[in-house]
Specification:
This protein is an alpha+beta fold. It has a three-stranded antiparallel sheet. The chain is globular, with a radius of gyration of 12 Å. It starts with 8 loop residues before the first strand and ends with a helix.
Length: 74
């Protein structure tokens, strides 16, 4: 059985993947519900990554980020 996730919001990483796990990030949320700090300054982004308990997909393309999120949800 194929896993799908809904809702999903895929965004370009704040720092283009230089300080994140990939250039694109996939969140299992609607856009208005994205966790605070994912797109903040250096300190906010680091705090988000270190404190995040929900799966977040990452990849070099939006599709790769989604597939990574799906793999983490299995």
């Amino acid at each position: 059985m194929e896993v799908s996730i809904y809702p999903v919001t895929i965004v370009a990483a704040r720092y283009g993947g230089g300080d994140e796990p990939g250039r694109w990030l996939a969140f299992p949320y609607d856009a208005p519900d994205l966790p605070q700090g994912w797109d903040g300054d250096d300190l906010d982004c680091r705090a988000f990554r270190e404190g995040c308990t929900e799966p977040v997909g990452a990849g070099s393309t939006p599709n790769d980020a989604y597939l990574d999120l799906v793999s983490k949800a299995r």
